[in-house]
Amino acid sequence: MLTKTLTLTEQVARQIADDIAQGVYPVGAKLPPGRVLAEQYGVSAAVIREVTERLRAQGLIQSRQGSGSVVLSRTGAQGFLVPADIAVSREQLANVYELRMELEGGAAALAAQRRTSADLDAMARALADLERDLDHPDHSVEHDIAFHLAIATATHNPFYQDLLQYLNLQLRLAVSTARSNSRRQEGMTHSVHQEHVAVFDAIQARDADSARAMAVRHLRQAAGRLQLDSLFPVSP
Fold this sequence. Notes:
Four Helix Bundle (Hemerythrin (Met), subunit A); 10 helices; repressor; mainly alpha; Pyruvate dehydrogenase complex repressor; Arc Repressor Mutant, subunit A; 67% helix; transcription
């Protein structure tokens, strides 16, 4: 089911990208609303949201809250991109998790130094939502991503926010898989939640070193739940 959704996302994203390249949607024009695109391509609203994020990450469109998506360029950016088949390549997924450890560890440390009360409130809300929906995978994945993005926002560095938002959304399927694995083991879901709480507590205490360590520990544990840790290169 999830693999099919990922395939649909890629298919629709490529079709819309082709339409943009051919001038069907000119630079400066708005894309049709999400519900119209969903009907046009026969997919769900969730797929269209992922398509929109993919096109935004490629530099083709810009999304504005409440005003839709505007075409920025007919050709996509040639910069950093996560492969579309990341969820089925264990080696590539391990490499991205290793990258996330460094990036999100640094983000957590910065968040501990720079967080405001509003930042803490956003993290706390995501944690509360996550705890409430631990046994509901569709919702818990969204709350998991929201928590990580709240930490990125608390760095008050827009480049951390943009890159980590991109990585987290691209790894949505992997997060869902990790949570499914956790639910198969009694008590594991609670343990995962406590990993998030440990990161939050360190950020709240303004302990940058602990925040970094807890974020890295959480992602290393997540990689282990996906059985990716054995693929990390051995240090010389």
